[in-house]
Each structure stands twice: as C-alpha cells, then as structure tokens.
Amino acid sequence: MSAADDAKHNAEKAGGKIKEGVGKVTDDEKLENEGRLDQAKADLKKAGDHVKDAFDE
C-alpha cells in the first residue's frame, strides 16, 4: 500500500470521526451514523489494500 493511499484512508476515517462527533453534539442521529459508515468504509478500503499487497508479495 502506498503512503498516499494510507494517508487518504486515514483522512477519510478522521472525517468520519468528525462527522460522528458533530452528529453526537447536535443530536443528529443520521449524521452520526454517516460518520460511523465513513469510518467503516475507510477501514475496509485499508484492509483491501493490505490483502492486495499480500498477494503482490
């Protein structure tokens, strides 16, 4: 996995954490769930890259 991909996934996860936090503060359940979903997507993309790298080696 390239450093750029890793940084992109980490930024995506951080954005999800921020969105989740804003949802909690504003009592917006939809926004909070979107934040959790963004974090899960970032984790899945990162895991997919790790699997891809394992097969490349």
Q: What is the 3D shape?
A: elongated
Instruction: Give the C-alpha Rg.
Output: 14 Å
Average pLDDT metric? 92
For the biggest sheet, the summary is: none
Number of helices: 2
Report helical residue fraction: over 70%
Order of helices and strands: HH
Number of distinct beta strands: 0
Q: Helix/strand-derived class?
A: mainly alpha
What fraction strand? Answer: under 5%
Quickly describe the structure.
This protein is mainly α. It has helices at 3-25, 29-56.
Description of the structure:
89% of the residues lie in helices and 0% in strands. The chain contains two helices and no strands. The protein has helices spanning 3-25, 29-56. Helix 1 (3-25) runs antiparallel to helix 2 (29-56). It is elongated. The mean pLDDT is 92.
Q: What's the layout of helices and strands?
A:
Elements lengths: L2 H23 L3 H28 L1
Helix pairs in contact: 1-2
Distinctive features:
mainly alpha, 0% strand, 57 residues, elongated, 2 helices
